Amino acid sequence: MDSAESAGGRLGAVLLSPRSGVVALGPHGPWLTTTPDQARQVLTDVSGFDFPGDVTRSGDLSASRGETRSGHLVFPPLQPEAVERGLAVFTTEWEAAISTHDPTVQGEPYDAMLLLRRPVARSTTSAVLPSLDRADRDQVADLVLSWIDALAPVIAARRPPRRWSRARRTERDARLALDDALAAIPHLDGPPQMTATMLAAGIQVPIAAGAWLLAWLASHPSDGVDPVSAVWETLRLTPPTWITARITTREVDLGGQRVPSGAVVLVSPLLLGRLHELVPGDPDGLPGFDPHRWQSGVQRPGAWLPFGAGPHACPGRHLGMALLTHLAAWGLSRTLSLTERVTIDQSRGIAPLPCRFTIADGREPVR
Ligand code: HEM
User: Fold this and answer.
1) Is residue 51 classed as helix, strand or coil in its secondary structure?
2) What average pLDDT does the chain have?
3) Where along the chain do its domains lie?
């Protein structure tokens, strides 16, 4: 598997930057925080740091052009019964996805990013929209997946595509189709656009997280590994939302450094997850996958903020953890092997590409 340490692009630049306070990545920013205290300040002090606004580019907040989302609605955290409902759907749908994988070609690999799409989409949709019957839920889940797919070229583009470009039009059509389906649901909690954002965030990110988890399990021995520890270690080394941004609303003091008003300030859970003060074990071994490090209970996992912090912290974290823990238990009870080298796709958060694996212990489904 390619390591983040050796990755180029923005990911490499962030990991290579000096960890000595707030670092300007260019002559006029963006500014990168490199300590847990600064990161928390940026994410929790809403009077000094605003959320970047344009949802259609939100998978790549580091490329924000400075627009903000002041007055942004707060997403209420998913309640335990919603998490339970989502997990039940994921369990059934994951089993179904595995068993419908075509086993006719001996050794045909499973593609984690494809396999996870429907189980995650249906699970999150069930959790967020309890009133839908199965057919409507599946339709909404597919519309969200189409929107996520249509967003990909918009987000990945080096420059924001023009309003009437094919990428923008395709994205708008997919978004409107989803909005229409959501607007037809009686007693929807909040505007359709807000539900659409919740669904997209709650589907795209866990698909990437689940694929990373399977990639790590397939490339490391897993004897005696506890599923929850495997999940935390995955979210430490490859948090799908590896970087997030805020815009300063005024000049701010960050650990003694003056940052001007209107500046983009970055927080990277991936960088924070490599700080030895937050992670138990040998400091030289921090880039390596070792779930056992969390079994000693010496340090609390999650201090590197894989689910964010403050008012915009992830409202779906309990569902995310539940899905990933189920998937980890599934993966740990089998012998998974990667069939190809996994590289890091940085076009929207981070995702493993390709992420294909076989199940080596003869438990592949038979017809
Ligand atoms: C492993 C799974 C997940 C991870 C790692 C994750 C990570 C994150 C992170 C880091 C943020 C904060 C971004 C920021 O501060 O800029 C966030 C926000 C968000 N997440 Fe998650 N998430 C996961 C699952 C979910 C699920 C299952 C849902 C919905 C059911 C969800 C819905 C959201 C929403 C709506 C936001 C935006 C909150 C706001 O802007 O106020 N996420 N997530």
Assistant:
1) coil
2) 90
3) 4-359
